[in-house]
Specification:
Chain lengths: 563, 151
């Protein structure tokens, strides 16, 4: 499968998947935060508004309550004083005892009255009665009272710095024309009573005269009050004077009424929305991550599946290929075995009939040889020679076929000794070999099968013997050397040589160097040599200069030996 | 030793071979009776090893069997096996005479109990003399353990 045909797997887009949703997530986060904070602020604001409204209402209720009490009691006290003054106007000045009685009654009955005094305008005599027995009439107040006698009907309120009371001046004209002034001090806090005074912790009030002078103050108003927290209400006219009471919340009221919980709510809301935003952010991030992961995962899955399929296809192809190779190998082995069996049985089965020819030829010669003439005997000999030649051919053919089948056991082989043995074997039976000059050099050892390598030398040397026959001086030489990674062995002779044009073809089976008429031989000797050498991983060659002898060489790889 | 007639059995489907062998044995002036069988089945019958033949005391007992391997019908291998299986004949020397040079055949023959293995030769001069030489060795030189009872 060509590589270009494959589609390259897409690069994971995990990061870009996340990047795409980041803007979305930011927008969502801001939205959540703004909505949350806005809602919180709104809630805070509305709570504050409600709270303020409640505070205003509380303040108003409190102020009205106090004012109502003040109204009633001031009215009553003033009325009581007026009654006393009228009584005096009708009945004349009271005796010492009567003053005592009336003043004590007034002080006893009217809680808010601190003291009461009478200043005679003419004589300047003074009478004074107070709840505090040690108190005396203030000289300033006495002087004021004296100066006011001449202005009947007018009343004055004077702030008593020490006692913080309202001082009322009531002119009295008795029937005996004595003019005097009834002076009384009212304590507003006492007017209000204990239950209302405790409210002074939350509300302060100041009484302002119509001359815009603050004459009385109770409590300290809060510095920051805000709108709607100022309530001003007038008291009933006291002797023609207008009194305005300013009610104001105190710090304690503000602290109590304007509670901090809306602020806490604001903070909590802000925190909550932040947390919500963060959670949403994380959640969306998680979701994005998980979706990106899922996308990547599915892509990976697809890739894995594709790879798996590709692998399976490859495996299948491989299996098919292996099966095919195996089938071919089996076929080939079958063919080889068949061929070997065939050639073996051919040679074996041919051997018997050829043998029969030879047998009968020899029987013929024995039984009828005497009756045959010269020509008949010659023909019989030709029959026998032909048969012998056929037998040799068949024997060599069998040998040639074996060569491929035998497993060669490799050992270190002393090639010099092998060559010497081979020569002594081939000269046996050839009587004319005595005049051969045989030269054997020391040959490099080889790794291989000694029997087969011996066969190589035997074949080459018998060839050399064969083709030097007829020469006056027959020379056969075996040389060898290590050349590079090879050991080279050469068998050379001064025989008739061969046609150099044949080249490597001389190693082919049944290729004869010369015609059978001149030299016996099956044409398999060199083929066997080539087969053995190739089986050892070597190579063979042949050289000849016409009539200049022949050189047959073979080279074997030297493995393991140190050259 | 030579006062009694000795019998050897040649088994081969090649009539020419049998003729050459007879002549060679005769030429070697061995005092033997030569029996020949052209098939494996015939050889077994002559040896009393065939299923339908009973042991006959008068039957000639060869002191040597020269056996071809490749024969139609009952092959030489079969004959070899049957000879070695029988208590009566398992001591008889067997010389395999075959045209096969295959090492497998040689090895198998020895494994099955052959005593010698000869490859057929076709010499123009004194043909079959190798057979006579082998027969002389087994008859005259070799001492076979069971052969004592025959004499």
């Amino acid at each position: 499968m060509p590589n270009s045909g494959r589609s390259t797997p897409p690069a994971p887009r995990f990061a870009s998947d996340l990047r795409g949703s980041r803007t979305q997530r930011r927008v969502a986060l801001i939205l959540i935060f703004v909505l949350g904070t806005g809602g919180t602020v709104w809630a805070w604001w509305s709570t504050m508004r409600d709270s303020r409204a409640r505070s205003e209402k509380t303040l108003s209720v409190l102020a009205h309550e106090i004012h109502a009490v003040l109204n009633v009691r001031v009215e009553r006290h003033v009325q009581a004083l007026r009654n006393l003054a009228q009584f005096w106007q009708l009945h004349g000045l009271l005796s010492e005892d009567a003053w005592e009685f009336n003043s004590q009654m007034m002080l006893g009955n009217f809680r808010g009255m601190e003291w009461i005094a009478w200043v005679n305008g003419a004589s300047g005599t003074q009478r004074f009665a107070a709840k505090d027995s040690s108190a005396t009439l203030d000289t300033r107040i006495a002087a004021e009272a004296m100066s006011r006698v001449n202005q009947p009907g007018s009343e004055m309120v004077y702030p008593d710095a020490s006692r913080r009371s309202l001082v009322l001046f009531m002119p009295v004209r008795t029937p005996d024309d004595s003019v005097g002034m009834l002076v009384a001090a009212l304590s507003p806090e006492k007017l209000l009573g204990r239950e209302l005074l405790t409210s002074g912790d939350f509300i302060s009030y100041a009484i302002e005269s119509d001359s815009a002078q603050i004459v009385y103050e109770w409590g300290t108003p809060a510095t920051a009050q805000g709108p709607g927290m100022a309530i001003d209400m007038p008291l009933p006219q006291v002797f023609g004077r207008m009194w305005l009471v300013h009610y104001r919340p105190t710090e304690a009221f503000m602290a109590g009424s304007v509670s901090t919980w809306p602020n806490f709510f604001l903070l909590a809301g802000a925190l909550l929305s932040l947390a919500l935003g963060a959670i949403a952010f994380q959640f969306s991030k998680l979701r994005d991550y998980s979706s990106a992961l899922a996308a990547t995962n599915s892509r990976l899955d697809a890739q894995v599946t594709e790879l798996f399929q590709r692998d399976q296809t490859l495996q299948k192809m491989n299996d098919e290929l292996e099966a095919r190779v195996e089938a071919r190998t089996t076929q080939l082995l079958e063919v080889v075995t068949e061929l070997e069996t065939f050639s073996h049985s051919i040679s074996h089965d041919l051997r018997s009939p050829v043998g029969a020819i030879l047998n009968y030829a020899s029987i013929l010669e024995e039984d009828y040889g005497k009756r045959l003439d010269e020509e008949g005997l010659r023909l019989l000999r030709r029959v026998q020679a032909g048969g012998q030649s056929a037998i040799r051919l068949l024997d060599q053919l069998v040998e040639f076929v074996w060569m491929g089948r035998e497993d060669t056991e490799r050992t270190q082989v002393d090639m010099t000794e092998i060559a010497r043995d081979a020569y002594s074997e081939v000269v046996v039976g050839s009587e004319d070999a005595r005049d051969v000059e045989f030269q054997l050099q020391s040959l490099p050892p080889a790794s291989g099968n000694a029997a087969l390598l011996g066969r190589v030398f035997r074949n080459l040397l018998s060839n050399a013997l064969k083709y030097t026959r007829g020469r006056e001086l027959r020379r056969i030489a075996v040389t060898g050397e290590t050349r590079g990674s090879e050991n080279v062995y050469v068998v050379s002779d001064n025989g008739i040589g061969f046609d150099a044009a044949q080249g490597q073809a001389v190693f082919e089976p049944f290729r004869r160097l010369h015609t059978a008429k001149e030299y016996e031989g099956a044409g398999l000797g060199l083929a066997i040599v080539a087969k053995i050498v190739r089986k050892h991983g070597g190579r063979v060659w042949a050289e000849s200069s016409e009539d200049g002898g022949a050189t047959f060489g073979f080279a074997l790889p030297h493995m393991g030996e140190t050259a | 030793m030579n006062d009694k007639v000795t019998t050897i059995l040649l088994v081969d489907d090649d009539e020419g071979h049998l003729m050459v062998a007879r002549r060679a044995l005769a030429r070697a002036s061995l005092t033997v009776d030569v029996l020949t069988a052209a098939t494996g089945a015939e050889a077994l019958r002559m040896l009393g090893l065939a299923a339908d033949t009973a042991a006959d005391p008068a039957r000639p007992r060869p002191v040597l069997v020269m056996l071809d391997l490749s024969m139609p019908g009952v092959s030489g291998w079969e004959v070899l096996r049957r000879i070695r299986e029988s208590d009566r004949t398992n001591h008889v020397p067997i010389v395999v005479v075959s045209s096969s040079k295959r090492p497998e055949d040689v090895l198998r023959s020895y494994e099955m109990g052959a005593n010698s293995y000869l490859v057929k030769r076709f010499e123009a001069l004194r043909p079959g003399s190798y057979l006579a030489e082998a027969a002389r060795y087994w008859i005259e030189l070799n001492e076979a353990p069971g052969a004592q009872g025959v004499h």
